[in-house]
Amino acid sequence: MGNNQTYVLIASANSIFRRGIEKILSSRIDFHNLVIQQAGNIQEVLEKYSNFKPRILIVDFDDKNINRKIFLNSFMDEQHNAQLLLVSLQQTGNVIFYDRQVLSTDQAHQWLQVPWNENKSFLSSDNVELEDRK
Predict the structure, then answer these.
(1) CB contact burial 9-30 (16+ within 10 A = b; e otherwise)
(2) What does pTM read for this prediction?
(3) Residue 115 in contact with residue 89, Cβ under 8 Å?
(4) CA nearest to 15, candidates 41, 35, 34, 46
(5) Whole-angstrom Cα distance, residue 44 to residue 70?
(6) Torsion (CA) 78, 62, 19, 50 in degrees, nearest 10
(7) pLDDT (tens digit, 9 = 90+) per residue, 49-70?
(8) Could you give the domains of the chain?
(9) Which has the closest alpha carbon to 25: 3, 49, 55, 53?
């Protein structure tokens, strides 16, 4: 495992979804640094998640083969730093993004005070300026 490699896990029983996400990722400048794994059922997801410790997980959230409860319990139990993108193929609307971050006490205090915007990272410095833009 190279220092500059980023492990990505795409989880869906739908191979078109998995290939589509991989195609989107292929347009990234750093695509050559990505190590992309795919999983089509919950057993593969848990195995690859445990073995490869991906930094990015892209999950078809409503896929019956990716048991939502089992997956989320496993994700919450793990301690490694990972970003999670939950996409629904059954519903239109927002995509859920979760960025597991460890906060200092000061960062947590700041996070509780700045305006929250669903389109931006909670820890983004842009949040501090939101009131000025309105």
Answers:
(1) bbbbbeeebbeebbeebeeeee
(2) 0.71
(3) no
(4) 41
(5) 12
(6) 20
(7) 999 999 999 999 888 999 888 9
(8) 6-99 (3.40.50.2300), 102-134 (no CATH)
(9) 55
